[in-house]
Write a structure and sequence with these properties.
Elements: E1 11-15, H1 22-30, E2 47-52, H2 56-65, E3 69-71, E4 74-79, H3 94-103, E5 106-112, H4 128-158, H5 163-180, H6 192-200, E6 209-214, H7 225-233, E7 240-244, H8 246-253, H9 258-267, H10 274-285, E8 288-294, E9 298-305, H11 310-317, H12 319-323, E10 325-331, H13 333-339, H14 342-347, E11 352-354, E12 365-370
Parallel strand pairs: 1-4, 1-5, 3-9, 5-6, 6-7
Antiparallel strand pairs: 2-4, 8-9, 10-11, 10-12
Helix pairs in contact: 1-8, 4-5
């Protein structure tokens, strides 16, 4: 049975070749104990996990309000089966991999940047740049197939002389040429007029991406030759790159006591667990922001898409809040922290009353008035 969808169904999918550390990272992110084995396809069905988004602002608000409960927000992550050469033609678990990746909204691409004779590499040697190119090639080949099919349809429709159909043909041909030049769709420059048509193509390589270099313990701070070569290979892409040691992260989650965890993290020379950075990067990748509600019963973080208006934010709590929305009382996070309480913020004149067109800012502390 599939878990209930978190945050509006938005998902980040962990992808990579077999044996690069995907399932180990997934376990560290979710503590879900997915099967992590030293052979390809240990994860045959996509594991879905709900991960808590670390946010020190939530803790700071809770200290001021002293609520009965503190509830963080979450994001959904999927561990997808390892891909191999030929996946676009159905090799290995190719068809399943591609179907699963089509379902997610963003990609976390894990590459192996460590040497270990005890962990088999599917291609016999460690080369993260080559590994990335294998996955890029398979996804691009599938996208070419998708665009070619859609282009045939557009051309038939364009025979009527309809300007919109002719425009679709032009854009699809441009995208096809871009893909055939071995470039992912996410690097295709698209203007506002073409955006709807481009989005309609629903291409795998158009999804936003985060690269995670899985390194050995000694390389987690400064990286190594593999990570330097990889960083150089992706420097033209609009993508974040994070170094993480999945082995260290696996050790961290074995410690139940939070203080012991942080002590271990500091011993490793880190400021926080690497998974925290990955989770926040996924959150950003999905174009999500957080607003808060704060009261005696609970202080809680809620998630909305960037650009969401006040009624949509209210609807995340309950659909009735959106339907009967009257107004939102809004306090900026920094003002709440500076003045120390809602009452003090009101006295300082820093609480604003906003209507239906108000665009939610990251960190807003909100209270909704509604009528059902």
């Amino acid at each position: 049975m599939r878990p209930e969808i978190a945050i509006m169904g938005l998902q980040a999918g962990i992808v990579g070749l077999p044996n690069v550390g995907k399932s180990t990272l997934f376990n560290a992110l979710t503590n879900a104990k997915a099967l992590a084995a030293n052979y390809p396809f240990a994860t045959k069905d996509p594991n879905v996990g709900i991960i808590t988004v670390p946010d020190p602002r939530l803790d700071a608000l809770a200290k001021l309000v002293n609520p009965q409960k503190v509830i963080p927000t979450t994001v959904e992550i999927v561990d997808i089966a390892g891909l191999i050469k030929g996946a676009s033609k159905g090799e290995g678990l190719g068809n399943q991999f591609l179907a699963n990746i089509r379902e997610v909204d963003a990609i976390v691409h894990v590459v192996r940047c460590f040497e270990d004779d005890n962990v088999i590499h599917v291609d016999g040697s460690v080369d993260p740049v080559r590994d990335k190119e294998i996955i890029d090639t398979e996804l691009i080949l599938k996208d070419i197939e998708t665009v070619e099919k859609r282009l045939d349809k557009y051309k038939k429709q364009a025979k009527s002389g309809n300007k919109e159909d002719i425009k679709k043909v032009e854009i699809a041909e441009s995208v096809l040429a871009h893909l055939e030049d071995s470039k992912p769709a996410r690097s295709f420059e698209v203007d506002d007029l073409a955006l709807e048509i481009f989005t309609e193509l629903s291409l795998l390589t158009a999804k936003p991406i985060l690269y995670v270099c899985n390194v050995d313990e000694a390389s987690v701070l400064e990286g190594n030759d593999h990570t330097k070569a990889f960083a150089d290979a992706v420097k033209e892409e609009d993508a974040e790159l994070i170094l993480i040691s999945a082995g260290i992260e696996a050790d961290i989650i074995e410690l139940d006591d939070p203080e012991e965890r942080m002590e271990f993290v500091k011993e490793m020379g880190l400021e926080e667990p690497g998974v925290n950075r990955v989770i926040r990067a996924c959150y950003d990748l999905l174009k999500l922001i957080t607003y808060f509600t704060a009261g005696e019963k609970e202080v809680r973080a809620w998630t909305v898409r960037i650009g969401s208006k006040a009624p949509q934010a209210a609807g995340v709590i309950h659909t009735d809040f959106e339907k009967g929305f009257i107004r939102a009382e809004v306090i900026a996070y920094k003002d709440y922290i500076e003045f120390g309480s809602e009452a003090a913020v009101k006295d300082a004149g820093k609480l604003s009353v906003e209507g239906k067109e108000y665009v939610v800012n990251d960190g807003d502390v909100m209270h909704f008035r509604f009528n059902v």
